[in-house]
Amino acid sequence: MSDAPAMRDLLGADAPSNWGKWGPDDELGALNYLDAGEVLRGIRHVKSGETFTLQIQMGRTDGPGDPLWPGREGIKRKNELDEGTWDGEGAPAFPGGLHYADDTAHIFLQGSTQYDALGHVWYDGKLWNGYDARSTIDAMQKASVLPIAEKGIVGRGVLIDMARHRGKDYLDKGETFDHTDLEAAAAAQGVTIEPHDILCVRTGWMKYWYELNDPAAFYDGFKEPGLTYSRELVQWFQDREVPNLVTDTIANEVTYEPETGVALPLHCALMRNLGVTLTEIAWLDDLADACAADGRWSFLYVAAPLKVVNGTGAPVNPIAIR
Ligand code: UVW
């Protein structure tokens, strides 16, 4: 048993919270900030019409596989019908000679670039907005990914390139940064992180996964780089009214809070308590290169995770339009 403190002791009984802010039945959390005005604000940041898709490829077979939280598996895609099907005795015959191919897939909903449902993590038996954690049993009844998917996520995105800011291709294992570093990087990039921005943060960690091409080395002493918990950082997210945090890491924050060893406290502080939606495993490198080339770090961000009823999350291919 670890001697790390309980989540409630680390975050505090009076941790910053948005529970109740959007009513007792809310399942969207800080995405409520993204209203029609925010869509129009995002559109004003489209200047050149370039588009960048931010999902990693699912089920790549030419490298290390897909980057995953330990214990998860990448997509298992299976041919059900292909040209071979139509050779056999008793193959279906369609008027006109139509042939077609079908696949099935077994996927972890968190097994690729994804939106987490607000109910995806919890502590002390309560999810986002105070919903009972037992409502997750068998199927996520409250704060599933479905309301997020029904809404869609559209607004002004801003990219903070922490790896570039620190002069690296990718951050080191366990390397941390906080809101003051985000502000410093933004200032160096010549961009301001504005209220209601969809905050995209690049660490280079996806690039590291593919370039290293060695899952054993990647998972040895598994500790992703990322944002690290402090009460001030959580307060900053609440004050900035950040609706959505998007990163190129598997879990959006340094895996273990360095002082206490608590695993993923920002999942709890931001997602469970503030209703900030988390998007993980994003491919931000091509977007970052384009932003660095002309010094424009803001864009229209559009994402529509799959409408999985009762889903704990859903794969997504967000698009940044600049
Ligand atoms: C966990 O919460 C364990 O994983 P993630 O949010 O990265 O999918």
From TrEMBL:
This is Cyclase family protein. It comes from Pseudonocardia abyssalis. The lineage of its organism: Bacteria, Bacillati, Actinomycetota, Actinomycetes, Pseudonocardiales. It comes from the Bacteria. InterPro entries: KFase/CYL (IPR007325).
